[in-house]
Amino acid sequence: MQALVIAAHGSHLNPDASDPTYAHADRVRETGAFDEVREAFWKEEPHFREVIRTLESDEVFVVPLFISEGYFTEQVIPRELRLEEWHPEKWDSDGTSASQVTLEATDVDKTVHYCGPVGTHDAMTDVIVQRAETVTEDPDVGEGVGLAVVGHGTERNENSAKAVEYHTERIRERDRFDEVEALFMDEEPEVDDVTEYFESEDIVVVPLFIADGYHTQEDIPEDMGLTEDYRLGWDVPAEVDGHRIWYAGAVGTEGLMADVILERAADAGADLGDALETVRANERVATGTDGRERESGTDAGAGTGAGAGD
Length: 310
What we know:
Strand order of the largest sheet: 2-1-3-5-4
CATH topology of the largest domain: Rossmann fold
Number of helices: 8
Largest sheet: 5 strands, mixed
Strand content: 15-25%
Oligomer: single chain
CATH class of the largest domain: Alpha Beta
Helix content: 25-40%
Radius of gyration: 19 Å
């Protein structure tokens, strides 16, 4: 038997913080690829610490629903899961290349495949692009349009910026959008000045966050000038300094995130059958897209008030 654990942050303050986790888990659960699919959180129940001990499966795939390698993925989750043989060096990563490490949870006699975070997987690049398609309602969006991939950025974890820059460069290499830039909240170049970095009249802004919350639904819209008060909402697109800003909201709320979770598990050796194809097909049907690979979509996540924790 094999089980999947989706490990997310959650929030004590905002009950919506866990919504994307449960939604993606349901999508994976519906494929029947795993005998058990469980959600686990740092700030909510069920907690990281006991989740593996509640499973019947003897093989467990743990996928962190986090954007970057850092404190939570390298220290908190392995510690709380009691993966005693774990050490960050086992990932042998440069900050964006963590894949998986196989460990034994000896107290319960289970094999645990601890995967890298979803945010650094190559499939996340497709989700960012899909997010741009969702908010513009244009499956061919790109020509004449600029794309800003926005991250938190922090001096405490240089990998936070690496993930944003990694996907920005991958999208830029596709030569689909006229301009592609990485912007940040807490370091240069800052998202506050988004219009200064683009010549394109239309700019799609996609925050590389797992859930909509304080940063994506309050800070960023106000900082970009979409609204003076997030509680009043904002237009999509919004006119700012002679540009149209298409603000997409957190990338992690996109339905295709379930595909990234499955890709992580597959890289670690999970037997998925046709689960990947099923998830992609279901997302195409749900959004009425034209049948191209990796098409998906959920709520654009813009024009609302505060949402879940980032």
